[in-house]
Design brief:
Structural class: mainly alpha
Shape: elongated
Number of helices: 5
Largest sheet: none
Number of domains: 1
Oligomer: single chain
Number of strands: 0
Length: 109
């Protein structure tokens, strides 16, 4: 019981890690949940906004976890979180490019 208390205390003593983990969990859960994706789709007809939302959760989560890893000098986690942030930025960029191409193909500016 003492080790569980110590683990919870250690987790919450890292605010960057807590926020980062929560953002990643929300993004991953939404991405992998058909029901949650359906609810998000019902809120908007724009698939790009859903993609942007999930990528933003991953970007914020990855950035927070990067700060946490940097503060703790955990090299493996620093590399992993840099990768996570780059992938999230790539996802945002791809969604934006797809929206621009779609607008251009419809003759919009």
């Amino acid at each position: 019981m003492n080790s569980i208390r110590l683990a919870v205390s250690s987790f919450f003593s890292q605010p960057w890690g807590v926020v980062g983990a929560l953002c990643i969990m929300v993004g991953a859960t939404a991405f992998n949940s058909r029901r949650l994706k359906a609810k998000l789709s019902a809120m908007t007809t724009d698939q790009a906004s859903i993609s942007n939302l999930l990528n933003l959760f991953n970007l914020v989560g990855g950035a927070c976890l990067l700060v946490n890893a940097w503060k703790r000098d955990e090299v493996v986690w620093i590399v992993l979180e840099i990768y996570f942030v780059v992938i999230a930025v790539k996802g945002l960029w791809q969604t934006r490019r797809a929206a621009e191409k779609l607008a251009h193909s419809h003759g919009e500016a």
